[in-house]
Amino acid sequence: MQLTIRGKLSVLYTTILFGLLTGFCVILYSSIAYSLKSKSRNELLTYAHKLSETFDKESQSFSDLPEGDFNANPLYWFRIIRPDGILYHPAPVFSVMPETASIQKIIQSSKVTHWFYDFEDKEQWFSSVVFPINEGLQFSGWVEVVIPVSDEKRTLERIGFLMVSLGLSIVMFLFFSGRFLARKTLAPVEQIRKQVDTIYEKNLSQRIISPNPDDELGQLSGTFNNLLQRLERAFYSQQQFIADASHELKTPLAILRTQWEKLAEQQDLPLDFRVRIQSDVEELARLSNLINNLLLLASTKEIFNLNEFPVINLSELVHSLNDDLLILSESKHQEVVISITENLEVNGDKSRLYQLMLNLADNAVKYTPENGKIVIELTKDNNMAVFSISDTGIGISPEHLPFVFERFYRVEKSRSRQSGGYGLGLAVSKSIAEAHFGTISISSVPGTGTTINVTLPLA
Ligand code: ADP
Known about the structure:
By secondary structure, the protein is α+β, with helices and mostly antiparallel strands.
């Protein structure tokens, strides 16, 4: 599973603190357990020692033994085991504690060092010491002392329970507070991301504003801004280059075209020569068109402020398009149907908007066979003017459709080229629509036809 940085930070933070907390609890618990155990064992040893001192070497017997009965001395019980295994003075309670060590085990154990063991009986806990009695070189048996340690055990259990439940609550708290802290710390990242998301080629001059310019994120924003500056410069110098080159080519091409047009009209030249010149003139016309489009694409960045555009009557513009469209479609005997909602006004550049519509109309004629139909509509939808143009042409297959607005994209390279396109018409139309804060969209069914919708904000 891929965690977000926020998730990673909170997991890391929680894990580290959980580790530290667990370590601390384990150490605390072990030292409490150790000191409780040492206390009870010291107590056992004290009793065992006292008892072993009651051995009288002379009479080879124990004198002054305290009462070993449970009732008589509830603090501890004891029994004395002679080397031959015979019990001496056992507290009666030993007979009802089956978990105590067997006599067999005791007489086989060390005659020099004492040993401890713990056992549980009827949900009560006990600790025991088996202590060898040595008087000088003489070994006289073992004394075993048992004390109840249930209270210590329960205290430990309570501490353990408290630590676990408190630990779990602390971990939960740490996890959620960690998430909260991580969210707070990373909030500026989200702010920066949102700002970067709004930067396109058209607003490359925009810069990222960071809440704190001196922290790491502020520095990152600074780096982004430097990158944007470099990109902006590169982008605009490229645009400028296209604009300059197009501009330089425009005039000589126009001169060439006029001269060759005149030449083509000279009747004294051989016919086949005039035909070749005529075809060159058409090629020159296409080149002029390409250069105009390039100039337009390179300069749409300048037409950016809607308030600077004059108010124009879009309905009238579409009426004038109708005349041009009729001329274009005449040779192909196409039917043109046009429906215009009158007096729709937009803020815009008249010649560029006309260029947009003419590009679309030109395509409709180009890609619709003879006797096909072209429908143009201008309607109003809320505060937008909607210009739509549909044809019954060849259509565009779905795999090409997403790319037709890209520069120099042609669906069927060879055919489009013959019919005069460089693949810039739709790119130019899109650029003009967007410069007017409008949109352009296309839908098409191969073999049935294409519809293009352009929306423009009404004035
Ligand atoms: P071109 O100048 O080659 O027509 P455009 O940018 O205007 O370039 O169009 C891009 C491609 O989209 C064209 O090559 C053509 O294949 C396709 N296209 C555009 N309009 C239509 C249409 N109305 N019907 C079918 N195909 C179209």
